[in-house]
Amino acid sequence: MPIESHAEPQSWQSRGGLFEGFRASDPAAPLRETLTTTTFAPPLSRRHCAPGNDNDITGDILDAAVKIHRHFGPGMLESVYERLLETELLRRGHAVERQKPVSFEYEGQVYQDAFRVDLFVDGKIVVELKATETMNKLYPKQVRTYLVAMGLPLGVLVNFGMDRLVDGFVRVVNGYEEPKP
């Protein structure tokens, strides 16, 4: 026997955000009117509350990038996407450094401010941003070079210029070894 529900079905829209537009209902007419026109955010996931795990951080980066890309699409300057992503990650409780100068040492010689990382999230994840129509094979290699120079295990490449952001999002791992059976 089917269960009857007097509540309206949930309606998810992508108007300006990933999960905005949740509709709630109530049998009381005046209250129902208010609830169906009010936008509620869905409950925050565990990763939004306590950043720290590399997978959770990169998940937040992807989620924030998708939100921005859905709202604006491709076509803006890389520097604009950089500021938008920084703002979105700060809202989610992450520490973000933009255009962080990086120095490294090679065979006893120190190279001061050798390059700049677009975003450095929570002191452990390098984020390299692009805003080009195509992916270049050099982009992930650039991120890996940053990781090697900084002695870090994980970085992310985000190309906002792609029609579909999933085609422009790459996790880059430095020094990963397959687990032995």
Q: Helices and strands in order, then pairings?
A:
Layout: H1 29-37, H2 46-49, H3 54-72, H4 78-91, E1 96-106, E2 109-121, E3 125-130, H5 138-150, E4 154-159, E5 169-173
Parallel strand pairs: 3-4
Antiparallel strand pairs: 1-2, 2-3, 4-5
**What coarse outline follows from CA principal-axis ratios?**
globular
- Sheet of most strands: 5 strands, mixed
Number of helices: 5
From the helix content, strand content and strand pairing, which structural class follows?
Answer: alpha+beta
Number of DSSP-assigned strands:
5
Description:
The protein starts with 28 loop residues before the first helix and ends in an 8-residue tail after the last strand. The relative contact order is 0.12. A 5-stranded mixed beta sheet has the order 1-2-3-4-5, with helices on both faces. It has 2 domains: 8-43, no CATH class; 48-173, Trna Endonuclease, Chain: A, domain 1 (3-Layer(aba) Sandwich), CATH 3.40.1350. Helix 5 (138-150) links the parallel strand 3 (125-130) and strand 4. By secondary structure, it is an alpha+beta fold. The radius of gyration is 21 Å and the shape is globular. It has helices spanning 29-37, 46-49, 54-72, 78-91, 138-150, and strands at 96-106, 109-121, 125-130, 154-159, 169-173.
